[in-house]
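=== RUN LOG ===
request id: a7f3
mode: sequence -> structure
chains: 1
length: 201
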Amino acid sequence: MIAWLKGVLRDKHPPWLLIDVGGVGYEMQAPMTTFTALPSTGTEVVLFAHQVVRDDAHQLFAFAARPERDLFRQLLKVNGVGAKVALAILSGMDAATLGRCVLEGDTTSLSRLPGIGKKTAERLVIEMRDRLGPSSTDGGTQALQGGTLTERAMDPAAEAVSALIALGLKPPEASRRVAAIDSAGLACEEIVRLALKAMVK
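=== RESULT ===
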């Protein structure tokens, strides 16, 4: 089981990133909370990892901090929550907000996240309430090294639409959510974060 990876960040296209570890490229998926903490491509990073092994695929998920990975693992234990839904949850709200929603029974905010219906939101509240401790909801963002290399030249708004679709939104809704944001000068990660934040208001 891969617990963490240290290498050079070669590419990032939410929710995917590529890290070069000793000449081997690891493709990983990460929540938007991790993407906003990432430095420029070409910079060395250390990422906590969670590996999912299935018959048809091996998947790696990346997290900027151990508490975030631990919370992801707790979400996977909830009935009806798979890796894609857990990723969408952590992309739509930080650990502290998720903890508040669970402890306060705020199923309305939870059900606004991509892939979360009313029943899944209710299960999240019931099953996560006893699992969340201080270490799971402190946000725990680990500082990552900064860099100066140029990001890939791509329209951030179009990239944000692709990221939202990958997180579970239907293409028309993803486009509508991005169009509703004044995205001028914003990076893809920030556009996605704002779009998801608007969904849970």
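=== NOTES ===
Residues 156-199 form a domain with the Helicase, Ruva Protein; domain 3 fold (CATH 1.10.8).
The beta strands are 4-13, 16-21, 24-29, 44-53, 58-63.
=== END ===
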